[in-house]
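Protein in question quoted in full.
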Amino acid sequence: MKNLSRLMFAMLLLIGFSNANAQDQNNPWAITFGVNAVDVYPVGEDAPRGDYFDEFFNANDHWNVLPSLSTLKVGKYIGDNFSFNATGSINRIEKIGETTNNPSVQLNDELAYYAVDALISYSLANVLNTKKFEPYIGVGGGYTWIEEGVGLNDNGAGARSKLGFGTLNGAAGLNYWFSENVGLNLQTKYKHAFDDQSGVKHFQHSAGISIKFGGKDTDGDGIYDKDDACPEVAGLAAFNGCPDSDGDGIEDSKDSCPNEAGLAEFNGCPDSDGDGVADKNDDCPTVAGLKALNGCPDADGDGVADGKDNCPNEAGPAANNGCPWSDKDKDGVLDKDDKCPDEAGTVANNGCPEVKAPDATVIATLNNYAKTILFDTGKSSFKQETYPVLQAITAILKEYPESNFTIEGHTDSVGSKSLNQRLSDSRANAVMAYLIENGIGAARLNAYGFGEDYPIDSNATRSGRQNNRRVEVKLKN
C-alpha cells in the first residue's frame, strides 16, 4: 500500500508539470504498464460484501493490491474515437469485505488472481473538447481465475484449485498525456460474473503509464503523415507540413515566387521599387511607377508611360504617342479634326472658313444678267453677244462654291404650248451646260423649263412678251 501511494504521488507530480498532448489517430498503438487493485466488497452481495459502490474508495480496508508490476495492456485505435484494448493482470486476494465488528475481513490465505480482458473504449476528449485530459468509457468481457478459498469461492474443488469464470465488464477511465507519446492511465472496471458457484463479482482498479507509438512521419518534420499535406518533404506545422523555401510566410504551393521572398498581397512575389506592382508583372521593376501602366512612370501625367511617350514632359493623348495635337492655322481646331488645316476657319465649319451664301442682292444681280441672255430665234443656241453675260454669271457662282442653283427657262405665249415647253427646257439646259463646261460642278445645278406657264408680264404687248422670254437663276434650298 505504501508503494502504491508513492507511485500515485509521483504520477500526480508529473501531471502538474506537464502541458503536452497526444492523439490516438497519430499514434494508433499503446502499451500500458501498471498496478491493479481488486475490490470484491461493493458488489451488491450479502455480508461480508456490501451494497453497490458502498465505501467505493476505501482502499485501506477493501482493496487488494499487489505492490509490483501487475497489469499489462495493449491498445489499438480503430477510428471515430474508438479503441480496442487487451489486458492481462495478476493479483492476490486477501481482503473480502467487512462486518459490524470487523471493517476489513481477511482470508487466512491469499488467493492467486489472474485475468485476461478485452475492452472496446470510446474517448470523450473530442466531445468535451479537451486535449491533455482524455476521459473514456468502455464495455467488454474477459475470463478470470481465482484460487478456491473458504469464504470467497468455496465450492469443493479443493484448496489451491484455480476456478475460472467469464465476466461482462464495464469500465471508465482517464488518460492524461504528459507528452506526445507518454501519459498516465487511471481506470476502474466492474466485472460481473455469471457463474454463481465459482464466479466472483468485483471491481478492478488500475493505474499505469501508457506509451503510444506507431505514428508515421516520413519526412521527419514532426507532423504525422496523416496530417501532413506534404508528407514527402519536410515543412512547417503552420502550413500542415508543407515547406516555405524562401521564408516569407507563404507556403511554396501557394507562392508564385517560392525561391524569392515576397509579400502576401503579391502571392509571395517581391515588389522591389515599392510601387504596388509585383516585379514579375512590373515592366519597370527598378523605378516606381503606376499600376495602370504596369509599374512604369508617367512624368507628364497624360496616361502614356514615359518609355512609350514621344513627349514625356508634355501631356498628350495616347493616339498621338503622348504628344499634344498641333493646330497649324491657329484657328482653334486641331489638325486631326481640321478639314482645312492650312487655312484658318471656324469650329462650327470644322476648321474651314465660313461658307458664304449669296444674298438677295447677289441673286438679283444673277437674274439681271440672266435676263440679257439672247438665243437665236426659235433655238437654244446663244447669240454671240451673250457670252460675256454667261462668263459673268459663271464668275459669280464660283464665289459661292458651297451653294447650289436652279436654272429656269420661260417663254412667251407665241406658238403652241408644247413647242414653248420644249424650247424652255432646251434653253435652260443650254445655260446649265455652259456653266458646267466652265467649271461649275454639275451636282450644284439643276435646269427646268416652264414654257409659257409663268409669265411676269402681259403677252399682249411686244415689250411684255420680251420680258416673258427669260432665264432665271435661283438659289436652291
